[in-house]
Write a structure and sequence with these properties.
Helix content: over 70%
Shape: elongated
Largest sheet: none
Order of helices and strands: HHHHHHHHH
Distance between the termini: 28 Å
Strand content: under 5%
Length: 221
């Protein structure tokens, strides 16, 4: 656990030392949502109808921006090979790096989402569900994205390939995240959708670190 915490702390320090990575994710999130009222018009009814989908799609795309850097810096300086040979199991290393990635990029998205939902005229009844859904969904995005990042870690321009690999796997998170907010807004219970998001998070926690570790070993061979 000490090694796990050290990796999380190291990645967080590097993320904030670079500065631009986490900021770019939030800026993209804000700009993407701001463009929708300009494109579809300022009518509150129209914006409220598409608010949940807009926020979730923008969050999904923003989360993908930093995936390429998940293992890239360690590969470039040669430390990824040393980490793979260290006594700490590689799946635990992947899990630690995913946690750091989520804290640096996912948490700011969760914090910014309600503020941008106000811009999209979302009904206040959906705010708590939006935050709860994103707290369950954004870690899943980081875990699934780690598999794609592991497969493309040795490629210089792997960002587009990561998107093609993981975007289809992100779709269930998007569907149930939007459905939960729409259920809350219409007076129905969002609980089934949130439970499904929680199940996807637990499944990703169980499977994604092992898959990503195998992908890293395959890429390094």
């Amino acid at each position: 656990m000490t090694a796990f915490a050290a990796i999380v702390g190291r990645d967080l320090r590097l993320a904030f030392a670079r500065g631009g990575e986490a900021l770019n994710v939030v800026v993209f999130f804000v700009i993407a949502i701001t463009l929708f009222p300009l494109g579809v018009g300022p009518e509150p009814q129209v914006l409220a109808r598409i608010a949940a989908g807009t926020v979730w799609v923008a969050a999904l795309l923003a989360a993908m921006l930093a995936l390429e850097r998940l293992f890239r810096a360690d590969y470039d300086d040669g430390s990824l090979e040393l980490i793979a040979l260290s006594p700490l199991p590689l799946p635990l290393v992947v899990l630690a790096k995913c946690l750091a990635h989520w804290l640096a990029t996912g948490v700011p998205l969760v914090v910014a989402a309600p503020l941008l939902a106000v811009l999209m005229q979302m009904d206040g009844a959906g705010f708590a569900t939006l935050v709860g859904g994103m707290l369950l969904g954004t870690p899943t995005l980081s875990l699934i994205g780690a598999v794609g990042a592991g497969l493309t870690v040795t490629l210089r321009r792997g960002g587009v390939l990561i998107s093609l690999l993981v975007l289809p796997l992100f779709i269930p998170v998007l569907i149930f995240g939007v459905a939960a907010v729409e259920a809350a807004v219409t007076g129905l219970s969002p609980r089934p959708h949130l439970l499904l998001l929680g199940a996807m998070l637990l499944g990703s926690l169980a499977l994604a670190p092992w898959a990503a570790a195998a992908a890293i070993r395959l890429s390094l061979d």
